[in-house]
Amino acid sequence: MTFEELKELIALFNASHLESMKVEFENTKLDLKKEAKAVAVPVIETATMPMPVVEQTEPARPVPKAGNEVKAPLVGVFYDRRNPESEPFVKVGDRVKKGDPLCIIEAMKVMNEIASPQDGVIQEILVENEALVEFDQPLFIIG
Predict the structure, then answer these.
(1) Of residues 76, 101, 74, 99, the one with CA closest to residue 87
(2) Element (H, E) at 4
(3) Which of 131, 121, 66 is nearest to 91 (CA)?
(4) What is the dihedral angle through the alpha carbons of 113, 118, 124, 127, rounded to the nearest 10 degrees?
(5) Burial class (CB within 10 angstroms; exposed 0-12, middle 13-18, buried 19+) of 43
(6) Looking at the domain 68-142, which fold is it?
(7) Averaged pLDDT for residues 39-55
(8) What band does 65 get if pLDDT is binned at 50, 70 and 90?
(9) How much is the average pLDDT of 22-29?
(10) pTM exceeds 0.70 for this model
(11) Mean pLDDT throughout 44-67?
């Protein structure tokens, strides 16, 4: 290690936030340490200002669409298609018949196909693909 390289390494250490550093080269050992310095924390005084009064309002709840909810019969991962390359089983506006597949819920490496309980039109899909669903969680609205 040359003297210039050594000076550069020490300068980099001094400019860093490191408190200590050990470096060993072929015939050179370097042990650098910085002394802990007391840091002065500036005190900023602020005037107290009255806070504006904000009325609490309830968040707007979405208006449920007319139709029947199809709920998850088990806990698992929701899939809207058979595999990543295929099209979703259903989309909003699709007409379905009783027994048509709506989605798959994977539970313990078992793929459970969820079928439509009725004839109708898909009004809303309430779950994102690959989301974890809970038992009895609404998945679809069929009208």
Answers:
(1) 101
(2) helix 3-15
(3) 121
(4) -20
(5) exposed
(6) OB fold (Dihydrolipoamide Acetyltransferase, E2P) (2.40.50)
(7) 58
(8) low
(9) 75
(10) no
(11) 59
